[in-house]
Amino acid sequence: MRIDKYLKVSRLIRRRTLAKEVADQGRIQVNGLVVKASAVIKIGDEIAIRFGQKVVTVKVEMIKNTTKKEEAESMYTILSETTVD
Q1: CA-to-CA distance for 85 and 15, rounded, in angstroms?
Q2: CA angle, 80 as apex, 78 and 84 as ends, to 5°?
Q3: Which of 26, 35, 25 is nearest to 6 (CA)?
């Protein structure tokens, strides 16, 4: 699954267009590499997303094409949340 779609379905980012913009700005890394919105992710990958002054790192646990709001958090595990100065 493409990273922009995964971020939207898992509700880490609300809209797919916003996920694409964040990726195009170089603020998303998968397994330590900066990726574009079209990057394909798989179970076990680590995704680091920079939201302003905060970096959230998650591990992909499940990939689904659609999910309910209550089930979205089961698609990933938060590994860390750090503040960038």
Answers
A1: 27
A2: 135
A3: 35
